[in-house]
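User: Here's a structure from my thesis project, written as C-alpha cells. My advisor, Dr. K., wants to see whether a designed sequence matches the one we expressed. Can you design one independently, without my sequence as a hint?
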C-alpha cells in the first residue's frame, strides 16, 4: 500500500529525475516512475482491500515532511537513492495495518520516497541538504500480492 504522489508531483518529478546521470542508474530497476511513499509492503492474498480501506479512512489525509536525501545501501549490487520522510501519523498507520495478513519483514519501517536504484557506490554524490518540504496526501495505490491490477482510492 502506497501514498500515491503521481499527481501531486507530476510537474516536478521529471525535473528531480533529470539530475541523476544515466550512467549511474542500475538496470533493471532504474528510476522510480511512480512517485510514492510506501505505507506497508507485503500484504498476503488473504488481506481484504475493504479492511485496508477502512483503516486508512480512519486516519484521513496523511501529512509528511520530506527532510533530506539518503541512501539504502544494504543490497550488494545497488544503492537506493531516497528522500527521507518524517510523519508520526504515517508510522501509526503502518502499525495499524501490520495486524492484517502480511509477509514477515526483516526490515523496520523507514518512510521514504524512492528516486532511483543506482549502481553500487555512485549514490554519495547525490546526497544534499535542503529545506524540508511538507505535503498532505489522501490518495492511495494498492498492489495485490498476485500482481493483478492496482486499485487507487482516496480517504
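Assistant: Designed independently from the structure alone:
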Amino acid at each position: 500500500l502506497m501514498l500515491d504522489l503521481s499527481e501531486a508531483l507530476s510537474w516536478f518529478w521529471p525535473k528531480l529525475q533529470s539530475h541523476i546521470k544515466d550512467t549511474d542508474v542500475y538496470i533493471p530497476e532504474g528510476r522510480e516512475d511512480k512517485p510514492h511513499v510506501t505505507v506497508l509492503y507485503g500484504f498476503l492474498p488473504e488481506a481484504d482491500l475493504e479492511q485496508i480501506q477502512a483503516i486508512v479512512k480512519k486516519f484521513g489525509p496523511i501529512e509528511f515532511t520530506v527532510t533530506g536525501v539518503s541512501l539504502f545501501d544494504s543490497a550488494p549490487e545497488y544503492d537506493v537513492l531516497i528522500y527521507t520522510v518524517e510523519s508520526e501519523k504515517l508510522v501509526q498507520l503502518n502499525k495499524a495495518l501490520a495486524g492484517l495478513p502480511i509477509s514477515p519483514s526483516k526490515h523496520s519501517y523507514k518512510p521514504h520516497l524512492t528516486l532511483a536504484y543506482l549502481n553500487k557506490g555512485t549514490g554519495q554524490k547525490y546526497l544534499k541538504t535542503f529545506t524540508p518540504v511538507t505535503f498532505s496526501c489522501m490518495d492511495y495505490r494498492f498492489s495485490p500480492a498476485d500482481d493483478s491490477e492496482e486499485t487507487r482510492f482516496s480517504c
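When you compare it with your expressed construct, this may help: The chain has three helices and eight strands.
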